[in-house]
Amino acid sequence: MRTYSISEAAKKLNLTVYTLRYYDKEGLMPFVERTPSGTRLFKESDIGALKIIECLKATGMPIKEIKSFIDWCSEGDSTLQQRYDMFMERKASVEAQMEELRKTMEVIEHKCMYYKTALDAGTEDIHKNDKVGSSITN
Known about the structure:
Blueprint: H1 6-13, H2 17-25, E1 33-34, E2 40-41, H3 44-58, H4 63-75, H5 80-121
Antiparallel strand pairs: 1-2
Helix pairs in contact: 1-2
């Protein structure tokens, strides 16, 4: 079975070695084996688990809550409901973020159209009859 050093694992995950050491210090990597001299040995399954950690982090989940998830995984099937509920909460949170981003994109697309039209006309005066009068709010 292929194992990776911490620097190889960091490179595979597009993270820094410092980040992986921090995760280890915070208890997010109890699954990573060590040699007798203390060198971390990352397996493919460890890389997969770290990808889940990065996914949760990208949703805005605090490290403390990610640690709870890792602990639940270690506890086994008795925590399946907690893990499911946690992912359902994450899903709802990401859906809300996506809706906010969709609204933001609508404003940006409107402003792109506004300025493209003004550029094509050579003036913002083309928008003088718009309901909202200034380029800051249009």
